[in-house]
Design brief:
Number of helices of chain B: 2
Strand order of the largest sheet of chain B: 4-1-5
Oligomer: heterodimer
Structural class of chain A: alpha/beta
Strand order of the largest sheet of chain A: 8-7-11-9-10
Strand content of chain A: 5-15%
Number of strands of chain B: 5
Strand content of chain B: 25-35%
Helix content of chain A: 40-55%
CATH topology of the largest domain in chain A: Rossmann fold
Number of domains of chain A: 2
CATH superfamily of the largest domain in chain A: NADH-ubiquinone oxidoreductase 51kDa subunit
CATH architecture of chain B: 2-Layer Sandwich
Radius of gyration of chain B: 11 Å
Structural class of chain B: alpha+beta
Helix content of chain B: 10-25%
CATH topology of chain B: Alpha-Beta Plaits
Bound molecules: flavin mononucleotide, iron/sulfur cluster
CATH class of the largest domain in chain A: Alpha Beta
CATH architecture of the largest domain in chain A: 3-Layer(aba) Sandwich
Number of strands of chain A: 11
Number of domains of chain B: 1
Distance between the termini of chain A: 48 Å
Largest sheet of chain B: 3 strands, antiparallel
Shape of chain A: globular
Chain lengths: ~450, ~70
């Protein structure tokens, strides 16, 4: 069992240093250059764990290059680093687990990143009311008294809304107090207050904290070659012991499920990645490897590394309808195809789930999924369209039954409460995202 | 007539409020979707423009009161 991220060590700074040692400081006298970490991250082939699995060294380098292109900068124009601990995916729990159980590793990653890109301001963003706030407050107080960070790391608490944690929205919040996505989305060039801004997921930063100590080659010793290292997985749904587990990337899905007690009964499919992810039919998916390329090849999306098992007595189309309606309400309300398209799609999915849709309406749904993709200021509509499209692909028999006014679990429902996805109350698009909404 | 793109029409979907003046100015280039929002020929926010469509692209860009369209060369 490969556990690197310290989820079972006590969260104190002393315990953290006993477990991992101190974060090595860049020592100019030894000939270290801050940029050396970028090379190490490239060697590690670290890919971001926030959902997109984008190569981290490219982001670090983009920020370094865009601030170099501006020439000598005053302190207040230098880069900004933001740790993304928002975990907007309702079915995900990995970042909260990390921030409450191993906060110092994430903060080490922010420190190492700040030093590497020459950031003069550093933030950790967690949504308002998150259980991570008190644990970060304690951790940051410990760090302040032992002066281990090159820049002070501050906690920011944007509203708990799905799109507020998209990276341009986070940078917008930190710079201007507005948690709406920005177009074009290029925080590495123009992020918080126009400054080059690095946004990395909390788990990505924790891995960075380890790479800064142990090097890129060490990091890549485990995991799938295309996306090495370990990864946290939030396992939920029809399993006896749902929760967060750490596994090497590339671990077989059935092994991950086994860590949570194995499937509880017959599984008919999985939601992978989260609500911006994708559905797959059970089939032989439990043999698939949990890494971005393999999950994609199987029709899913590793995304935020959610693995949710849907039991035999749960109707996936009903689950889909509830989630789609929620996603529609989470639009920032800025772009037409998102603020009008998502509710239309949600309405079509609802008719399908309620078994009132006919072939014409189903065709309309398929057309609308194409129509809303690629036309938003951020990827929120694309993620939602993919969620719906993958469900239609994964459960064609259930779709056919519903178009015929039937449902495979009708009359048998209610015996499988574990299968239902967590869907927060629906809210109005755009509400709470602007500073003036709450001050 | 050349079919090489000579520029890219870019739509900022956040600025756009969908009143469709771009469509009125260049109906052959920009359609409106069922919600009244502009649909570029590419179906995305960026559409390569051939020389023969350049005038229409310029007309659409000039018609937009919100500066939501621009041409990148
Ligand atoms: C609608 C939307 C919501 C997102 N929510 C989160 C989130 O809650 N946490 C997160 O780390 N990334 C989220 N992302 C991805 C971020 O935009 C960004 O890519 C990520 O934080 C970068 O970190 P990484 O490169 O370390 O993965 C979201 C993206 C979109 C489009
Ligand atoms: S696509 Fe939707 S969520 Fe994204 S910026 Fe536009 S309105 Fe906001
Ligand atoms: S004229 Fe401008 S604001 Fe109006 S629909 Fe066209 S792009 Fe959008």
């Amino acid at each position: 069992m490969t556990a690197r991220l310290g989820l079972s060590t006590p969260p104190s700074l002393a315990a953290h240093h006993r477990e991992f040692g101190r974060l090595p400081l860049v020592d100019a006298r030894r000939g270290d250059r801050p940029g050396d970490l970028v090379d190490d991250v490239e060697r590690a082939a670290l890919r971001g764990r926030g959902g997109g699995w984008f190569p981290t060294h490219l982001k670090l380098r983009a920020v370094v290059d865009s601030s170099a292109a501006r020439g000598p900068l005053s302190r207040s124009r230098r880069p900004v680093v933001i740790g993304n601990g928002m975990e907007g995916e309702p079915a995900s729990g990995k970042d909260a687990a990390l921030l409450t159980r191993s906060p110092h590793l994430v903060l080490d990653g922010i420190s190492a990143a700040a030093r590497t890109i020459g950031a003069t301001d550093a933030f950790i963003a967690v949504h308002r009311g998150s259980p991570a706030v008190p644990s970060l407050e304690v951790a940051l107080a410990e760090r302040a008294s032992s002066r281990i960070d090159p820049v002070t790391i501050r906690i920011v608490t944007p509203p708990a809304r799905y799109v507020a944690s998209e990276e341009s929205a986070l940078a917008h919040w930190v710079g201007d107090g507005e948690a709406t996505p920005v177009f074009p989305d290029r925080p590495f060039q123009r992020g918080a207050a126009g400054r080059p801004t690095l946004v990395q997921n909390a788990e990505t930063l924790a891995h960075l904290g380890l790479i800064a100590r142990r090097g890129g080659a060490w990091f890549a010793e485990v995991g799938a070659p295309g996306a090495p290292g370990t990864t946290l997985v939030t396992v939920g749904g029809s399993v006896p012991n749902p929760g967060v587990v750490e596994v090497p990337t590339g671990t077989a899905v059935h092994e991950i499920l086994a860590r949570c007690g194995g499937p509880a009964g017959t599984v008919r499919g999985y939601l992978t990645g989260g609500y911006g992810g994708g559905w797959v039919a059970a089939g032989d998916f439990d043999q698939a490897a949990w890494d971005p390329d393999s999950v994609r090849a199987a029709g899913g999306v590793i995304g935020a590394s959610v693995l949710w098992a849907i039991g035999e007595l749960t109707c996936p189309l009903e689950e889909l309808a509830r989630v789609t309606a929620w996603m529609a309400g989470e639009s920032a309300g800025q772009c037409g195809p998102c603020m009008f398209g998502l509710p239309s799609v949600a309405e079509d999915v609802r008719s399908l789930a309620l078994r009132t849709a006919d072939g014409v309406e189903f065709k309309q749904l398929q057309n609308r999924l194409r129509l809303i993709t690629g036309r938003g200021g951020c990827k929120h509509p694309d993620g939602t369209a993919r969620l719906v499209a993958t469900a239609l692909d994964a459960f064609p028999d259930e779709v056919a039954l519903h178009l015929d006014r039937r449902c495979s679990v009708a009359g048998r429902r209610g015996t499988d409460p574990a299968g239902t996805l967590p869907v927060p109350p629906a809210r109005l698009p755009g509400l709470d995202l602007r500073r003036r909404d709450f001050t | 007539m050349s079919t090489e793109p000579v520029g890219t029409l870019v739509l900022d979907p956040i600025r756009c409020d969908g009143r469709g003046m771009c469509h009125d100015a260049a109906p052959g280039l920009i359609e409106l979707d069922e919600w009244g929002y502009p649909l570029l020929p590419s179906g995305t926010l960026r559409a390569p423009i051939e020389r023969s469509d350049m005038k229409a692209a310029r007309d659409a860009t000039h018609a937009c009161p919100l500066l939501a369209l621009h041409i990148e060369r």
